[in-house]
Write a structure and sequence with these properties.
393 residues; alpha/beta; 8-stranded mixed β-sheet; 12% strand
Length: 393
């Protein structure tokens, strides 16, 4: 029996489909219809209508499932349900993977329910490397505002690229293509996994790193253009996400040390499709608030301890340079490896605010292309200090 949805739902679905498009949601009634309608056009055009669209919902109170079911999908079957398990995006996505396995699908595509920029051709971009046998997992490759995706830019992208050897620009992008080979890997020990932060916002980094670690094929990146969604100010909205994402990343890196400790080079994950010329929407960032939260956090003993010998420098500058940040992040990972204390990750949050403040000040007068070079150049610093981390673990 399924773990994340009522097995009776299978009576309402086709016996077998080629593609499942999963849309996790929670109170997204205003945006889910557009995503659903677009997904249907993509299935019709690129999969000859051989698919199903699934809305796995977290108990929305605004009529999200109703909005989904009322959407015209041009005869593409659709199914909406409340997933079973810990509330969170991970439970929703795992329910879709379970369903895809039951339906013997070749591929799953996940689309965020608040997307405003999704297009039918995203379905083709996120699936073709899998259908052609070149990959088991496809991440999005977006053009984003320089202040969109700060957890990605300052933690997930440089850390996974330098340690796991594949430069995947958006490892927690939210919109993915997943091949059949990965289904069992994700569903193995799923009952235990579902009790962790993987059931929440940890799911994206967990899926991506598992693909990087456990598939013999390269992770591919799909050029999707701009990601337009509901952006968040890192100083006011992202603390819970940071703890769940970074905690999950630390856990999987520690558990799989033997698989990545000998990796010495970093290769760019192949990009499928031409990168469109797009204009991104501006995002406001409150640098003063980031600095304020950094200084407040430095009153916490564990945060002061993670700052180490850099404490006075950080207090004086009210921000954290890249070189200091790499040391702090690697030392935090090392400390986490000793006893898996989640308090270490929570105590990193104010320091993350300080790192974002520094990046924001450096790039405030730069366009997106120039800021992107700053983000990418971080890999060199992470790589230089990687050996120190490996020798200590």
């Amino acid at each position: 029996m399924p773990n994340f949805f009522d097995g009776k739902l299978l009576q309402k679905s086709p016996e077998k489909v080629r593609i499942v498009v999963g849309i996790p949601s929670y109170n997204n009634a205003d945006t889910i219809s557009f995503v659903t309608e677009t997904a249907a056009k993509g299935i019709k055009e690129y999969f000859n209508s051989d698919g199903i669209i699934v809305n796995s919902d977290g108990g929305s109170k605004d009529g999200t499932k109703d909005a989904f079911m009322k959407t015209d999908t041009e005869n593409i079957p659709k199914l909406a349900f409340d997933y079973i398990g810990i509330p969170g995006k991970g439970s929703a996505m795992l329910s879709v993977i379970e369903l895809a396995k039951y339906l013997d699908a070749e591929v799953v595509v996940f689309l965020d329910s608040d997307l405003k920029s999704v297009r039918p051709w995203w379905i083709e971009r996120l699936t073709t490397p899998i259908i052609k046998g070149n990959s088991d997992y496809v991440t999005p490759y977006y053009v984003r505002h320089k202040y969109d995706g700060t957890i990605t830019n300052q933690v997930c992208y440089p850390l996974t690229s330098s340690l796991l050897g594949q430069s995947v620009r958006q490892p927690i992008g939210g919109d993915f293509g997943v091949g059949k080979y990965m289904f069992d890997i994700y569903l193995n020990n799923v009952n235990e996994v579902a009790k962790t932060d993987v059931a929440k916002f940890g799911i994206d980094i967990w899926m991506t790193t598992n693909a990087m670690l456990n598939s013999d094929k390269k992770v591919y990146q799909a050029a999707l253009g701009a990601k337009v969604h509901d952006p968040k100010d890192p100083g006011s909205d992202l603390s819970p996400m940071f703890k769940q994402v970074v905690g999950t990343l630390f856990e999987i890196l520690v558990e799989n040390f033997s698989k990545w400790k000998e990796i010495k080079t970093v290769e760019e994950a192949p990009i499928y499709g031409e990168i469109p010329k797009v204009t991104v929407e501006p995002i406001n960032i409150n640098i003063d608030n980031l600095k304020k939260q950094l200084l407040e956090g430095l009153k916490i003993e564990e945060t002061k301890r993670l700052a180490g010998n850099y404490l006075e420098t950080i207090k004086e500058e009210k921000k954290i340079s890249l070189k200091i940040w790499v040391d702090i992040l690697y030392n935090a990972l090392l400390e986490y490896s000793k006893n898996k204390d989640k308090n270490i990750v929570e105590s990193l949050v104010p320091l993350y605010f300080g790192r974002v403040a520094d990046f924001a000040e450096i790039t405030k007068d730069m366009d997106e292309d120039a800021a992107e070079k700053i983000i990418r150049n971080q890999i060199e610093i992470f790589n230089k200090k990687k050996r120190m981390l490996i020798d200590s673990l």
